[in-house]
Specification:
Blueprint (H helix, E strand, L loop, with lengths): L5 E6 L15 H18 L2 H6 L2 E12 L8 E12 L2 E10 L2 E14 L10 H20 L1
Antiparallel strand pairs: 1-3, 2-5, 3-4, 4-5
């Protein structure tokens, strides 16, 4: 999907569905986290690299917009991008698609904190730079298309 440097796929598991056979609304946040952790692994050395510095990245807020239902055994693609890096805060945006059609989208807001004290701390330079590289590569490839 244009404008997103990262994509992962997941199969909708039966256990993730509700009584109507639709993927439960809460599972989308799990899919967002899956994409976020894999994004960090691909572009920034993984979430553990952040933790090794004594820093945690907390989720401050989240939003999901449901457009069409996903059902067992659909395969969905979760696209992720990261931006709005300012001070201790940053934001991921997501698009969920099935068979090329967007079925949901949303975002999560985050802050980096010192692991021991949970006090806000600036997003580490290496992470800001990794995000900028990933996102600029995505913008460049979108512009070439």
């Amino acid at each position: 999907m244009e404008g997103f440097p990262f994509t992962t796929e997941v199969g909708v598991r039966f256990a993730e569905t509700d009584a109507q056979g639709i993927a439960h609304n809460s599972i989308y946040l799990v899919w967002f986290e899956l994409a976020r952790v894999e994004y960090l692994a691909r572009f920034a050395g993984g979430y553990q690299a952040l933790r090794d510095l004594g820093i945690e990245a907390l989720v401050l807020e989240s939003h999901v917009r449901y457009l069409k239902p996903a059902r067992f055994p659909d395969t969905v693609r979760i696209h992720a991008r990261c931006g709005h890096v300012r001070g201790a805060r940053f934001r991921y945006e997501y698009a969920v698609e099935r068979d090329g059609e967007r079925i949901a989208d949303g975002w999560t807001g985050h802050a980096t904190v010192e692991a021991r004290t949970l006090r806000p701390t600036r997003v580490p330079t290496y992470l800001r730079e990794a995000i900028a590289r990933a996102e600029s590569a995505s913008s460049a490839s979108s512009a070439e298309a």
